[in-house]
Amino acid sequence: LLKNWFALNSQPKAFEFRCSDCGEVHKGSPSFSFAHPIQYGWLDVSERSRRAKLSDDLCAIDDAEYFIRGVLEVPIIGADEPFTWGVWVTQSKESFTRYRQTFNGDQSDGGSFGWLTVTMDVYNRSNAGEPLENLACDVWWRGPGMRPSIEIHECDHPLYHDWRHGISWQSAIKLAQATMHPEN
Ligand SMILES: [Zn+2]
User: How far is ligand 1, taken at its centre, from the CA of residue 178, in Å?
Assistant: First the structure.
């Protein structure tokens, strides 16, 4: 009861913390993004230019596998902005083509299905560096210049739990430190 009362009566505030790894104060809600889908990373560097096309928002491999980048927002309880992951999801050829063709316009009436296709060591239930288990997602396209919003289908994965229910301030600190300073 006390916790609920406190939550109702405290204004969300800007997230920041003093980092026990590097000693700096990290300001603002954490935001991390992946430069490419994991499948692109599996290609040898020499194969990448031959077999794949990659931009900040689109990726195709062998004109057979298709990916787009979206935003997964995990609420931080008590903070004014979410913990944001810039993630890649698979797309059917049809969805990818439609997304690419409408990319410069208002796509907010569009959407698609995709599998999350990144690795996040902080959420991985298998070995470090291995892909995150397949998570099914709805991908909600948005207005001009905004990356799609990702919603994870209900499942027992901890990333689904955090996305759906939010994380504590302390969890956000732990996740941010582990992502920024993975060597520790
Ligand atoms: Zn730090």
Answer: 9
- pLDDT confidence of 130, banded at 50, 70, 90? low
Using the mean position of ligand 1's atoms as its centre, give its distance from the Cα of residue 48 in Å: 32
Q: 180 phi and psi, to 5 degrees? A: -75, -35
Task: Provide the sign of the torsion angle of the four alpha carbons 115, 121, 125, 126, taken in this order.
Answer: positive
The pTM score is 0.90
Quote the ligand 1 centre to 104 CA distance (angstroms): 36
Q: Output the CA 81–ligand 1 centroid distance in Å.
A: 19
d(CA 167, CA 171): 6
What is the structure's pLDDT at 4?
61
